[in-house]
């Protein structure tokens, strides 16, 4: 039942042009915090966020949301900005798994992290195309999130091992890991209505 309510709410938002919001993707966590779902929505700047959330509160989408609430034990949200050098992938259906990585940075180190990562990311791109990368603006601050897609967990292991052999990647990881206080990796499966699959 909860799957039906969740799909009705998020797919309804995706398919409502008057809301001016894009559903980038919806996933279920299979490794990490269990029974957790990740939804990435793209708003037209802060004014767009204000307008869209108000429209949702006063529309039929609110009914679908209220039907979902009895099944939810906690929710959190974060407003982020996309890294200019790492644009979010367009909708596609490649199959496999997604990995969402979260890095909690030391305050004041975002620019240093971005500069180090920008130099080393080409080593990773030789083996796997990134889905997207974002840094927090509102919510949990000083956080970087990036997402990758792999055919399987085994393929993820093999591709990551190959990246370590390329000049630049080990140095990038060494520099950026010194700027983080906490790191998480979650393995996700796309939901049926997710534009990214």
Automatic annotation (TrEMBL):
Domain NIPSNAP: 98-195
GO annotation terms (biological process): mitophagy
Family annotation (InterPro entries): Dimeric_a/b-barrel, NIPSNAP, NipSnap_domain
GO cellular component: mitochondrion
Transmembrane segments: none
Protein family membership: Belongs to the NipSnap family.
Protein name as catalogued: NIPSNAP domain-containing protein
Organism (species): Suillus subaureus
Record lineage: Eukaryota, Fungi, Dikarya, Basidiomycota, Agaricomycotina
């Amino acid at each position: 039942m909860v799957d039906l309510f969740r799909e009705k709410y998020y797919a309804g938002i995706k398919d409502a042009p008057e809301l001016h919001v894009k559903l980038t993707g919806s996933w279920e966590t299979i490794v990490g915090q269990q029974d957790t779902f990740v939804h990435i929505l793209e708003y037209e700047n802060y004014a767009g966020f204000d307008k869209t959330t108000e429209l949702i509160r006063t529309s039929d989408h609110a009914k679908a949301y209220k039907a979902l609430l009895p099944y939810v034990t906690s929710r959190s949200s974060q407003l982020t900005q996309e890294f200019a050098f790492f644009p979010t992938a367009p909708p596609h259906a490649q199959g496999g798994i997604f990995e969402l990585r979260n890095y909690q940075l030391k305050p004041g180190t975002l620019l240093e992290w971005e500069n180090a990562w920008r130099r080393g990311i080409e080593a990773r791109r030789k083996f796997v195309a990134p889905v997207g990368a974002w840094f927090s603006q509102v919510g949990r601050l000083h956080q970087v999130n990036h997402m990758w897609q792999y055919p399987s967990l085994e393929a993820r292991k093999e591709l990551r091992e190959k990246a370590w052999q390329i000049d630049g990647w080990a140095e990038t990881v060494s520099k950026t890991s010194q700027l983080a206080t906490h790191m998480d990796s979650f393995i996700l499966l796309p939901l049926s209505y997710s534009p990214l699959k």
